[in-house]
Structures are given as structure tokens and as C-alpha cells.
Amino acid sequence: TTAATASPEDEESEADLREHHRHHHHGGVTMFIAMSLDSLGVSPEQAAAIEKIQGDLFAKLEPAHVAEQNVLNVLADGIAAGKIDTAKVDAAIEGVKAASTGVHEATVESLNQLHAALTPEQRATLVDKVEAHWEVWKKANTEELKPGDAAHPEHLDRLAKDLNLAPDQVEKIRATFAEKMKNHPQKFDPTQVDAHIQEFGAAFKAATFDAKTLQRGPFVHQHLAVWGTRRMAHFYEAIDPLLTAEQRAKLSAQIKENAVAKSGVFDAEKHER
What we know:
Blueprint: H1 8-23, H2 28-36, H3 44-81, H4 86-101, H5 103-117, H6 120-142, H7 155-163, H8 167-183, H9 190-205, H10 217-239, H11 245-260
């Protein structure tokens, strides 16, 4: 639970986590599970087994991670060149779709091993952490690009400061992005993800568990990965035409940096409450 007033460190780490979830969608809910293991507080006896399971999960997510890196690199190259090639972006997102389709299937065994390795208390804690990651992901990826204030800058505010964008550039980006999202044929359905996470939570807390029985798993992983990646692409497509050469170079480098960020490796300790 977050205290009524979060400390600056907490807010900073929450912002970092949001930034992570804004650029990494490929693992769907499995990514939330794998990321939650770092701060679960397992016993020394459990540590080796949990570490192995986490490694297995990340290995299974790797094809989808590589597909997502490809999208980020296409966007970065486009921004550097002064024009994003939307056909290339679409093809790269199809790659994410294909790679994320098999994630649920591929991780069933690892999730079953994870259930067996944890105590009932740890299972409940893990479910809470997964729900918390989902809330952060939702906040980072489904809200309008509304302006923040000085104390709580939003994503675009931070970027504007970083790239030294003029107020009219920011307004245009906001309007273009809203338009792109409005005209996008696929709408995001958070209720499907909510339902999957509820189903996972109830099943995982039970004494016996089989990840195979989670019916929404395959759809939800793909839905999260494709929609999140598409939204990210729309954001950069909205920014692309408005930048100076200097701003392009800087933003392109930042996107490349996000592309090489290790899948799901995040300083979990920092955003522990």
C-alpha cells in the first residue's frame, strides 16, 4: 500500500517503473510475474530454485523481447532519419504479435514449478505484486497524454524538458497522438486483463495450481503486447515530424537505450513500499 504522501524517492521509482512498462510489453502478465520475484523475500533454501525459474521465464520471453527490440530500433532509426517508416513499424509489430502468441503456452511449466516452490504467504504476496504491476502498466499505457504539474510531471512533460521541446511542439504532439489513438481500429480492453489476473490470482493462491487452465492467458498476453507496442509506436510517430535535428538525435539514442534494457530487469527494491 502506498502511504498517503509518497516520498520523492518513491515517486521517482514509480516514474522509473512506469517508464519501463511504457517500453516493455512483450511478456504480458508473465513479465509482471517474473519481475515480482526479485522482491518476494524468499528464504536462502528457496533462492536457487526461484532464480532458476525466473531465468527460465525470461528465456521463454526472449523471442517476444527480441521482436519488441526490433520495433524500438525501427522507431529510433526512423526518428534519426527524419521519417518513421510506418510500413516497417507495422511489420515489426506483426513480429511482436507472432512472438507473444506462444508466451502463455511456453511458460505453463515454469509457472507450475513456481507455485510448487513458494509458500502460501509468498503466493499471496506474488499475486499482490502482479496486480500492482498491472496498475502501473495501465497508468502508463492507457491514460490520455494529459499535462502534469511541476511536482508530478507526466511522460510528455518529462520528455519535453529532456528534449527542450517548445510549448507549441508539446501541444501538437498531444493533439496528434490523441487523434492517432482515436482512429486506431483496435481498442484496448482492460477488463480482459483484469479477468485474467483475477483468475490467475485465485488459482495461484489455491493449494493446487495448473497454469494450463487459465483460459484467457493466450489472448491476454498477445493483447497486452501488441496494443502496448502499437501505442508506443503511435506516440513516437506523433513526435517524429516536429523535432529539430538535435532533438531527433537525442530521442533516437534514448529509444535505442530502452531497446537494449534487459528484459524485465528492474531495480525492484527501489519501488518496494
